[in-house]
User: Fold this.
Amino acid sequence: MASGDSKIKAGYIWMNGRFVPQEEATTSVLSHALHYGTSVFEGIRAYETERGPAVFRLKEHVDRLFASAKALLLEIPYSKEEIEQAILEIIKKNGWKSCYIRPLAWFGDHSLGVNPLPNNPAEVMIATWEWGAYLGEEAVRKGARLITSSWRRFPGDVMPGKAKIGGNYVNSALAKMEALKAGADEAILLDAQGFVAEGSGENLFYVKDGVIYALETSVTLPGITRDSVIRIARDLGYRVEIAHRVTRDVLYAADEVFMTGTAAEVTPVSYIDHRPIGAGQAGEITMRLRQVYLEAATGRRPEYADWLTYVA
Ligand code: PPE
Assistant:
């Protein structure tokens, strides 16, 4: 899937209130969003648990979907509760044990020209599919190889970067393609001042002398995974600091670096710009955090039970 060599298999898709087979879940080529990137989306995962599939931090993701829509002046013609319910229903309808969930809302095809407002209210769909390790199994075992992109992360007065708006992701796509074509697994984007911002689809952390540093999020997406990992790390007794104005050589000198995201979960980083991080392999603290994160997501950590919404 990540390599783009096979078609996504999504089964039924929830589209504007109905369950539609994937082949029939289509939209107009005159949709405003297709021309100008005026969509908002979420990335959520459901994990297999002993009690069937459970969605990880559903409320937080749906809240962020609505916040993204608000930033874009896009009116979602459903309540948050209706979207939450639809997410649970589409997982059940497709019979997934675990899956990735992609709600998307967009300005439709009532008018073109940059003003999208005649296209309110939004069209809405929720697709689900199986998505394995975001950066590949090898990255999870050995650590991902990152390079610093020549594309900067846009500042908050250029685009609303806390919102998951389709058009924002042209920035991510450019950086990601550059990294892949250079033989790396993922890109690091610097902010307009040259400080480390985030990955193309992940937040960044580093570990130095036993302290865990989460990079600040002033121009980045404050990830829900990042928030979960900070809480887990503190509960495990680690000191967690928020790191400001991190230059890339701080990461080069770190003992460990890792990335977090719904798709990436907790992924270790082994090389940045051809320099080994620590021993150039997956770090110990990183893998401990990854393990507890996945235990929490799969219902094996009662202290995080309130993060899960069971499908049945
Ligand atoms: N930064 C960016 C730019 C980003 O896209 C994501 C999620 C994160 C940070 C981490 O956020 P969170 O998922 O709430 O922890 N990236 C999503 C899209 C990936 C994709 O390729 O599409 C995701 O992980 O679902």
Observations:
- Helices lie at 32-36, 58-71, 80-94, 137-142, 169-181, 224-235, 248-252, 284-297.
- The chain has two domains: 12-129, 137-297.
